[in-house]
Amino acid sequence: MSLRLAVLLMLGAGLCLGCSRSLDDPAKPHADLAPRAVVETVLRALQSNDEPTPDSGIATAFAFASPGNRAQTGPLPRFAAMVKTGYAPLLDHRRAEVGPPVATDGRLVFPVRVYPKEGAVRLYLFVLAESDSADCPGCWMTDGVVDRTDQAPAEVAA
């Protein structure tokens, strides 16, 4: 095998690995991403919020927000402030457990138990809807996240 061919093969393999990595942990929504994967992607991003840059996890969560959600909570700096004050337990949490979804009014509601780095376990409902926007038709996006920690765990938890 020539040196030139070997270099081309290594470059191709590197490009392929890069593609594979982006599919495993996408930064943006796409129509092939299942609803549960959307919730898991947002949770992973918030779990490592400041990696690779400060608030990049919050930026990923904002990218997965539905157009209606973004219209009410954006732009990004406003969204970031909201997450840091109202949803701080999601940032840098130790782990999260995603329960089975419930379909209601054309949306999927996922119960999520979050173990924050400090404090008691939190219970959230992630509400997803399929987008019909021109930006990402057929993409599942976050319509809202509701803190249900006050409810009995059996009602909300996975």
Automatic annotation (TrEMBL):
Listed PANTHER family: OS05G0574700 PROTEIN-RELATED (PTHR35716)
Keywords attached to this entry: Signal
Signal sequence annotation: 1-18
Protein name, per record: DUF4864 domain-containing protein
Keyword Signal (UniProt): yes
UniProt key word Signal: yes
InterPro entries named in the record: DUF4864 (IPR032347)
Organism: Abyssibacter profundi
One Pfam family, short name: DUF4864
